[in-house]
Amino acid sequence: MKNLKEKIPSSIFYYLKSRISSLFKLSLNGDYIFKIFSGLIASSTILILGLIIYELILGSTLSMETFGLRFIVGVEWDPAIKRSFGALPLILGTLTTSAIALLISLPISLGVALALSEYMPKKLSYFFSFLVELLAAVPSVVYGIWGVYVLIPFLRDHVYSTLQITLGFIPLFSGPIYGGGVLTGGILLAIMIIPIISSVLRDLFSLVPSSIKEAIISLGATKWETVKMMMSYTRSGILGATMLGLGRAIGETMAITMVIGNKFKVFPSSLFDSWYTMSAIIANEFLEATYDLYISALINVGLILLLINLTIVILARLIIWRSLRIVRGIMRE
Amino acid sequence: MSIYKIEIENLNAWFGSKQVLKNINIKIKDRVVTAIIGPSGCGKTTLLRCINRMHELVPGARISGKVFFNGVNIYNNGVDPVQIRRKIGMVFQKPNPFPMLSIYDNVAIGPKLNGINDKRTLDSIVKRSLILVGLWDEVKDELNKPGTSLSGGQQQRLCIARALAIEPEVLLMDEPTSALDPISASKIETLIRKLAEDYTVIIVTHNIQQAARVSDYIAFLYLGELVEYGATKDIFEKPKKKLTEEYITGKFS
Amino acid sequence: MKMTTQKIRKIKDIVMHFMIYLTLLIAILPPFSVMFEVIKRGFMAIDLDFFIKTTPTVGEAKGGIANAIQGTLITIGLASLIGVPIGVISGIFLSEYGENKFSTIIRFFNEVLNGVPSIIIGIFSYTLISPITGFSLISASFALAIIMIPIVTRTTEEALKLIPTMIREAAIALGIPRWKTILHIVLKGAKKSIITGILLAIARISGESAPILVTMGYWRWWFHGLNRPVANLALNIFLFANSPFENWVILAWGSALILILMILGINIITRMLMRGSF
After folding, report:
1. Is the pLDDT of residue C72 over 90?
2. Which residues of A60-98 are buried (b: 16+ CB within 10 A; e: fewer)?
3. Which residues of B167-197 are buried (b: 16+ CB within 10 A; e: fewer)?
4. Which of A101, A254, C2, C180 is an S-S bond match for A190, by CB 3.0 to 4.6 Å?
5. What CATH number is associated with residue C202?
6. Which pLDDT value is given to residue C278?
7. How far is B62 from chain A (nearest CA, A)?
8. Which domains are seen in chain A, by residue range?
9. Residue C134 resides in a domain
10. Does B98 sit within 8 Å of A233, measured CB to CB?
């Protein structure tokens, strides 16, 4: 009797299972459920990304309805009186500081990556690579406060004055120096993205097949000539790594807003002058935005920032993915 | 001036603590093909790489002894290995043309590094090298295609052309045909015989018959030691050591 | 003529050798300066009050960061509650069932999400959640969770990939269903690496201040409920750094020191553990 009592519930279970299975034409076993469940969770990333774009578009609607595409080329930002907003100087500010950052950080990152992968003895290289990875973990605000109290005084007192003396005839380098501004922002950004770009490049260089290196060495190439050959071999990967750094620089908020001066103007008068970026204005004014159009304008700025960032990051990932396949020999160029 | 292009004197080589070459003494003649043969792991490739100072590139690798090239010990203190490699070229087992360079640029890169920038000079060097290896007719209309777009045998000939473009005096070849099909292999063997007219060729091979076909002199290595060295004819017809005879006749490989 | 070319090549080689080491120096000096200054100036802030008092009001003599530490821990904790399970399960999926185009696409977009500026994620959380709760801890934690997810997913997948296929095959040969193999055997084996990945993600979000700014803003008191803001260490650094009050600035440096110690501490320990197991 007891066995029958135990058997009946389980047989009902199996009966139900087989009926549902045939109904949906699936086999309802644990593996399948687990796979579907975890797959759904895993696809949340795509869902989140889509949602982010959607929400930002939604939040920007008021601003887009009011200003239309003029927002992108608008040069006025007057929340108080006219309630008129335009993002062009912000876009330019973001792109300029990022460009400066790339100009500075690319050669340095290349040098660091080469030093770590080709020039240093292995044990030292492990230690310094470890160090470089660690540096990428320093938070933005810490770079920011260091920027305000250490970098700015240093640049103002020891670098910019010399720069102005030598290059002051160029308009970019003339004008009052207070220590912060566009150039300082670019320099701080460069300092922040160097560890990131270097790590990617170092990994890239370590993947160059030794047969390629041996081939050029056997022709009597010097170390530097060998290294040039390696950079030529990995050139699309270098491009991808640079773009990753660019994506990071564009989105950087706290550190840059602490040193760039946060002045909305169409063009700064020089590299030593204050300016503004898309991320900085959001950080500074979001809490002060008291009415809907103001908030919507800021979200609109965020939308532009997001779209630029997504374009760069997606392109960068595609390029790096492609270059990794070339370096691994899976794909021809 | 010695008739010997390369004289190896008491050469020992290590990878870390493992000794792979023991007291090698060989005198290599100019403008002949010398084959280094022996079972796997006997040190043939290491010996070859000691001649163009590529052995020392491996971390932990070192040598003792002397290697004289044109009468000068290449391991002397003041000698720049980079200069040595311009005079002693190398071709590797697996063809390794530069994938990001065209056929033309693959051959031209050596001379370019040496400072030759004039297009017409480079054109003639490339043409001459490709003719020498028998590739010119096959690729002359496709010089801009990537170096890797050729077949295996063609790629290896391209690598030989690349090595020859800087006009070395010695050509080292590490099992140059082992990764190729029989037809390409025999084309390269013919090329090797031709090259010996102008260059000193040293070839490592595990293929005994190839050594017999291609070389004038044979060095037989076993477990890092030189067992016997002599004219190919003598090695095959009247080997002095029993070990040599056993290897030649295929008793072990 | 030939001699000169070779000499030039040699000189170029030596010069570039020097230049490359120079770039290493240039790259390392600023971060070292950051470390040095944070320790030097932050040290001055450290005393008992620092850990006991709450952040000061205008004119108040000293103050401390006790509430900021509390708030940050709660925020990180809540974020992890959301982000860790989603990240780990996603990582499991990618590692165990991940040899197809769908998974490649997910991995790709994971890296894309990783690259989205954190302030945008903050705005997203604001638009999504603040209609319900206003500026709140929930909103901030949600933003931080989204930042965590790609990191935890990637590190979990890498951790699981380290477990040899043989172990999975052995379990399946014993008749254990695949999902049980994953949950009970593979996961257990990769536990240490997965936890390491989670710690690294926590280290990352503890330094985030931009999303905190737009989802919570500044809070001077202790924890007052999930639907209210809470104090935050990283945000306070930003807000206090440019303050005219000297004690506030000192607190900012002190907070930076605590933050750095915590983040670098986690990074150093976890990376050393990870390398040790190879």
Report:
1. yes
2. bebbbebbeeebeebeebebeeeebbbbbbbbbbbbbbb
3. bbbbbbbbbbbebbeeebbebbbebbeebbe
4. A101
5. 1.10.3720.10
6. 42
7. 16
8. 60-327 (1.10.3720.10)
9. yes
10. yes
- If one compares A17 and A186, the residue with the highest pLDDT of the two is A186
Which structure tokens are listed for B146?
Answer: 């990537």
Task: Assign 3-state DSSP to chain C and report helix, strand, coil percentages, each to 5.
Answer: 80, 0, 20
Tell me: pLDDT of A24 over 70.
Answer: no
Helix (H, G, I), strand (E, B) or coil at C253: helix
Looking at residue B147, the DSSP 8-state letter turns out to be G
Q: Which residues of C touch B80 (CB under 8 A)?
A: 10
C-beta separation of C165 from A60 below 8 A: no
Please give, one letter per residue, the 3-state secondary structure of A143-205: HHHHHHHHHHHHHHHHHHHHHHHHHCCCHHHCCCCCCCCHHHHHHHHHHHHHHHHHHHHHHHH
Helix (H, G, I), strand (E, B) or coil at C166: helix
What CA–CA distance (Å, rounded) separates A131 from B148? 38
Q: What pLDDT, in 10s, does the model give residues A32-70? A: 888 889 999 999 999 999 999 999 999 999 999 999 889
* Ramachandran area for residue C59 (φ above 0: left; ψ -120 to 50: alpha; else beta): left
CA distance A285 to A289: 6
pLDDT tens for residues A273-327?
Answer: 999 999 999 999 999 998 999 999 999 999 999 999 999 999 998 888 887 777 6
CA–CA dist B43, B36 (Å, integer): 10
| C173-201 exposure pattern, b = at least 16 Cβ within 10 A, e = fewer | eeeeebbebbeebbbebbeebbebbbbbb
> Within an 8 Å CB–CB cutoff, is residue C260 touching chain A?
yes
Query: Are residues C210 and A30, on separate chains, in Cβ contact within 8 Å?
Result: no
* Domains: count for chain C: 1
Q: Which two tokens stand for residue C232?
A: 């935050």
Asked if the B4-248 domain carries CATH number 3.40.50.300, the reply is yes
Is the whole model's pTM more than 0.90, yes or no?
Answer: no
Residues whose CB is less than 8 angstroms from the CB of residue B35 and which lie 6 or more positions away in sequence, other chains included:
B202, B203, B204, B205, B210, B211, B214, B215, B217, B218, B219, B232
Q: Which helix (H) or strand (E) holds B27?
A: strand B18-29
Q: How does strand B217-222 pair with strand B225-231?
A: antiparallel
* Residue A270 DSSP SS3: coil
Q: Which of B168, B170, B137 is nearest to B68 (CA)?
A: B170
Domain ranges of chain B: 4-248
Q: Is residue C140 part of a domain?
A: yes
Cα separation values, A290 from A79, A245, B22, C108, Å: 10, 34, 85, 38
Tokens at A205, concatenated: 């260089």
Provide ipTM, 2 decimals: 0.92
DSSP string, C186-209: IHHHTHHHHHHHHHHHHHHHHT--
Interface residues on C facing B, Cβ-Cβ cutoff 8 A:
1-2, 5-6, 8-10
Contact C214 A287 (CB under 8 A): yes
Q: Is residue C116 part of a domain?
A: yes
Residue C163 lies in a domain: yes
Contact A108, A194 (CB under 8 A): yes
Across the interface, do A286 and C213 touch by the CB < 8 Å criterion? yes
